[in-house]
Amino acid sequence: MTEEHAHLVPYKTFLLIWVALLVLTVITVAAAQFDFGALNIWIALGIATLKSSLVVAIFMHMKYEQWLFKLALLAALAILAIFIGLTFFDVLYR
Amino acid sequence: MSETTPTAVDRGFFGEANYPGILGWIFSTDHKRIGLLYFWCIVVFFSVGVLLGLLIRLELFAPGETIMTAQTYNAAFTLHGVIMIFLFIIPGIPAAFGNLIMPIQLGARDVAFPKLNLMSWWLYVIGAALALTSLFTGGGPPDTGWTFYVPFSAQTSTNVSLAAVAVFILGFSSILTGLNFVTTIHRLRAEGMTWMRIPLFTWSLYATAWIQILATPVIGITVALLFVERIVGTGLFDPTQGGDPIMFQHLFWIYSHPAVYIMILPGMGVVSDIIPVFARKPAFGYKAIVVSSLAIAFAGSLVWAHHMYTSGMSDMAVLVFSFLTFIVAIPSAIKVFNWLATLYQGSILLDPPLLYALSFILLFTIGGLTGLVLGAAATDVHVHDTYFVVGHFHFVMFGGTGMAFFAAMHYWLPKIYGRMYDKVVATVAWGVILIGFCVLYISMKVVGMQGMPRRYYDYIPEFTGINQLATVGSWILAFGLLLMFVNLFRGIFKGEPFGSNPWGGATLEWQVPSPPPTENFDDDPVVTHGPYDYKKAGIL
């Protein structure tokens, strides 16, 4: 029923992603040194989303999976976004 | 009513095990054996929870110290909450009766991942064992209440860390059960079992399973953060280190409010399945009940901060979450009206399963309406953290899910064991339970309205009379429960054998022998009619 689907990703890609993750971490730390006001959270969440997307897409092979798995992941992400979004009705208006 | 009345019971799946003795149970991948493992564990934990509840009520019989110290009292209500929530109500109906009945209702031979199913039970047992270990090791039993609120939970020297690990593991058990059920319902339906022919109990499990998958990871994250806060002092919830204690409450309730629907939705499913059978009528508004289950699952996930109106969060959040809370009342009311419309002009048989289902409707409706008092911010501020809240959630959780669990026991356990209990004693027990329940929890609501705070060890002398009334109610309730369990268990082990279909149900579980054989069906069933079509099923 399940088809074994080994997808080979070249080491070069893994290395590049690793470097990208390191660079993004440096940007996160650097951005934390400045106060952008309400944008702080958007910048932090934006970088974090980009980093986790790279990990999920390449390291966890989601890029090569069928649409159903991608949909399931997106649904979970949408729920997470709703949870975080509704929490901001509290955090932003205190 | 049954087609045949055999004098002896064929042992069905009880007669076939892969290993001898107890090993044949704890290493079995048969969904019915796993369901019974869950059931008996849950009954044991429920009994312990009841005992703790009785002790709490006894302590509150009079002001001042009655039978235990304040510290013991804190531990007692924490343990009562943790056991009842995590070990009884959450797994109660889905893990026990979902496992026992859902695959048969779909026409499947087992769940989609039988080994994963066994692992869920093992995780449940390990989590439960750790929760119990936390009582006797480290700094003593946790005293935080089942909500583990910071800052107290981050500072108390009691054994909160181990309890947090236990909750983490129990969460995984719940997630895996959810995954298993969703996959089973999608992939293992028999030929002809279209989505609109799925029994409403299984539909409710489907909605529940999605909440289990999507919301339970959040409690895992929450208790993990609490754990590291205690061990290394990360300061995430500590304002002096830039943290936010209210964030803990958000994280906690993002899971724990949807968990309320993990608890109640399967109960609603049980009631939706029982009422048509005993009214001899198809379920009124089948599709509306299905849609309302899904709507409750979705909308119920967006209302968590209504537990936090007095926490100091923003007024904007109070407004938004109060509004969202009222939305959940709509699908809940749709269900209640559909059940009543199903009963209307039915040929009603007042057998014990229906009696428990009817008390579900009554008590859940009272609990739900008092919930609106709490959902409206203006009134909540006055009764927040009083006994009114305790009365409210016992009406919803015990009067709702608890009664549905009892209804499910009286409806399905004879099917699983092939023997019937004494219906007269079951009916008497039901009456005693209902009286005890009302005396106990209505008293709580009244004393809460008068201003008695929850979780307090002591109270002013003016509250003595009503507290004593509540305690007497707890004795009546406990007696009723004892009567019910003794009668039921005596019945399923020693009662009269019956045919395959004692109640006249049209769903698939009533078409197989009692007890069902190991793989449920000799030949794969083909479904030709809806779950409540008694004419086509040849019952009417």
Textual characterization of the structure:
The complex is a heterodimer of chains A (94) and B (540). Chain A has helices at 11-31, 39-59, 67-91. Chain A is mostly helical. Chain A has one domain. Chain A is flat. The relative contact order of chain A is 0.09. Chain B has 540 residues and is mainly α. Chain B has a single domain (23-410), classed as Up-down Bundle (Cytochrome C Oxidase, Chain A), CATH 1.20.210.10. Chain B has 15 helices and 2 strands. Chain B has helices at 23-26, 31-59, 70-106, 114-136, 152-155, 160-187, 200-232, 245-279, 286-299, 315-343, 352-375, 377-383, 387-417, 423-449, 464-494; strands at 419-420, 496-497. In chain B, strands 1-2 form a two-stranded antiparallel ribbon. The longest helix of chain B is centred in the N-terminal third of the chain and has 37 residues, at 70-106. Chains A and B meet through helix 3 of A and helix 8 and helix 10 of B.
Termini gap of chain B: 10 Å
Instruction: Count up the helices of chain A.
Output: 3
* Number of distinct beta strands of chain B: 2
**Helix coverage percent of chain B:** 55-70%
CATH topology name of chain B, in short, is Cytochrome C Oxidase, Chain A
CATH architecture of chain B: Up-down Bundle
**Poorly predicted segments of chain B:** 1-5
Low-confidence stretches of chain A: none
Number of strands of chain A: 0
By CATH reckoning, the class of chain B would read Mainly Alpha
The radius of gyration computed from the alpha-carbon positions of chain A, rounded to a whole number of angstroms, is 17 Å
Give the SSE string of chain B: HHHHHHHHHHHHHEHHE
In round numbers, the mean pLDDT of chain B is 92
Shape of chain A: flat
CATH superfamily name of chain B?
Cytochrome c oxidase-like, subunit I domain
Q: Based on the structure, what is the oligomeric state of the protein chains?
A: heterodimer
